[in-house]
Design goal:
By secondary structure, the chain is an alpha+beta fold. The chain has two domains: about 170 residues, no CATH class; about 270 residues, Anthranilate synthase (4-Layer Sandwich), CATH 3.60.120. About 30% of the residues lie in helices and about 35% in strands. It contains eleven helices and 22 strands. It has a 22-stranded mixed beta sheet that branches. It is globular. The protein starts with 8 loop residues before the first helix and ends with a strand. It binds ligand ISJ and magnesium ion (MG). It is an enzyme of class 5 (isomerase). It catalyses: chorismate = isochorismate. Pfam families: Chorismate_bind. InterPro entries: ADC_synthase, Chorismate_C, IsoChor_synthase. It comes from Siminovitchia acidinfaciens.
Length: about 475
């Protein structure tokens, strides 16, 4: 039993599907609590909530958001208007909500966490089925850490006549937090690692480069490939999170569970953040490796900053983000030159984008306009997406897609879910891609994708047998 109140776990679970069809409304309580370890919170009441959790950390504002239990699920398939559909359903639920949150801190109170698939019109693979083309959760229990402050939010559906009693839920908050403790996690052994169809992939890369050189109708296409790993036992999501948390502290770390597979990663790439009317986005494209020797590492960085092919790859992303955001922003500030962003295995060209949004602009509008940027799709978008469908012949699922959160006040943040993979029982599928332009070289791009597998490989690698 999770909390000592009339709203015990089981009761909440039985209430949760009745929402819209009855007179039950969303009731949400937020309380400040003592700071606890977010991974330990993720493990509460294990294994009752397996398949019903999410995890998020941002390196910039030291935010962690952890959700446990699904109070409500938003799911969508093959829809052109999936961004506005999810937004409309969310707003409908919020319209009647009773929100007890005196703090108004971003990321507290009722919050939607989830993401969209990369391309609703690509081939569909069964392994991505549970994710659909949009999957979001409103959690039952949620921990939010911003700097030194820590909040607990509890959400439930309640009938109007019971509302005066639901305040009792708050009494159980401290009890819940006092019982948060880390449980031990072990890693299974890696038994097989397979890079899928590398020769075919290299052939596709060469064909795309030929088209980029000759057709005059397309400037950039991002092609990705897949790595399949098998383990002796099912991989545990808390183990993967713990590894990502210690190894990838400069990236956004995310986990989205379903009852049949979880999507995890450590991405350095923000798609969009919105706090009140402040908008932040990122152009991240153009890559080179790292070196343990600081002098060599700096040289590599300087090479990247002066490399025509990478600067072009990058500039196309800046240009598209500018075009996408301009109609929604009063002001837009974009530096003329990129700088370097370094993560443990790779360095990138990086241009931050800041703006002030026009009234009435929601984070879902911005996500819908920005996705897919040419960092993961190409230029022009439609032609590039068609080439990706024809050449990759795989389902990217949620890889390279927008993943993130929005709270009841419209604040939120979405990242581009790269350096990521699907964890499904004893199998894991990792993804990595590269931006192809006319000057690309297939073997260099193969190397670039190998480096991009590293963050997830290290996190889930386990011990080879
Ligand atoms: C496609 C990926 O990364 C993207 C492609 C990059 C490139 O080609 O230089 C760099 C950063 C990302 O925008 C990936 O990591 O899978
Ligand atoms: Mg590249």
């Amino acid at each position: 039993m999770l909390i000592n109140s009339p709203y015990q776990t089981k009761q909440i679970n039985t209430l949760k599907h009745k929402d819209a069809k009855t007179n039950k409304v969303l009731v949400s309580f937020t309380k400040k609590v003592k700071k606890v370890d977010p991974v330990a919170f993720y493990q509460i009441n294990k294994p009752a909530y397996d398949g019903e959790r999410f995890f998020w950390t941002s390196p910039d504002d030291h935010t962690a958001i952890v959700g446990v239990g699904h109070l409500h699920t938003f799911f969508n398939r093959r829809a052109d208007d999936r961004f506005s559909q999810i937004e409309a359903e969310w707003n409908e639920l919020l319209a009647s909500a009773v929100i007890n949150n005196p703090f108004q801190a971003p990321g507290t109170g009722p919050l939607l966490f989830g993401g969209f698939s990369f391309d609703p019109y690509s081939v569909k693979e069964e392994k991505w089925g549970p994710f659909g083309d949009a999957l979001f959760y409103l959690p039952e229990y949620m921990l939010t850490i911003t700097g030194e402050d820590c909040y607990l939010t509890v959400n439930l559906f309640e009938s109007e006549e019971m509302l005066p009693h639901s305040n009792q839920v708050k009494k159980s908050f401290d009890l819940l937090i006092d019982n948060v403790k880390r449980s031990e996690i072990t890693s299974p052994n890696l038994v097989n690692k397979e890079e899928l169809s590398v020769p075919e992939w290299l052939k596709s890369v060469s064909e795309v480069i030929d088209e980029l050189k000759t057709s005059g109708t397309v400037d950039k296409v991002v092609l990705s490939r897949e790595l399949k790993l098998s383990f002796s036992e099912p991989l545990l999501t808390d183990y993967v999170l713990e590894q990502l948390n210690t190894q990838q502290q400069d990236s956004f770390i995310f986990m989205l569970e379903t009852s049949d597979g979880s999507f995890a990663g450590a991405s350095p790439e923000r798609l969009v953040k919105k706090m009140n009317d402040q908008v932040l986005s990122t152009s991240l494209a153009g890559s080179i490796g790292r070196s343990d020797n600081p002098k060599r590492d700096k040289e590599l960085g300087n090479m990247l900053l002066n490399d025509e092919k990478n600067l072009f790859e990058h500039a196309l992303v800046v240009e598209m983000i500018k075009k996408a955001l301009e109609p929604y922003c009063e002001e837009l500030d974009i530096p003329n030159e990129p700088v370097l962003l370094k993560t443990p295995y790779i360095q990138h060209l990086y241009t931050p984008v800041c703006g002030v949004s026009k009234p009435g602009t929601s984070i879902f509008h911005l996500v819908g306009e920005l996705h897919p940027t040419p960092a993961l799709g190409g230029v022009p978008t439609d032609r590039a997406m068609q080439i990706i469908r024809d050449k990759e012949k795989m389902d990217r699922g949620f890889y390279a897609s927008p993943i993130g959160w929005t709270d009841f006040q419209g604040n939120g943040e979405f990242i581009v879910a790269i350096r990521s993979g699907l964890l499904k029982g004893k199998q894991s599928y990792l993804y990595a891609g590269c931006g192809l332009v006319a000057d690309s070289d297939p073997s260099d791009e193969l190397k670039e994708t190998s480096i991009k597998f590293q963050p997830m490989l290290q996190a889930i690698g386990g011990k080879s047998e």
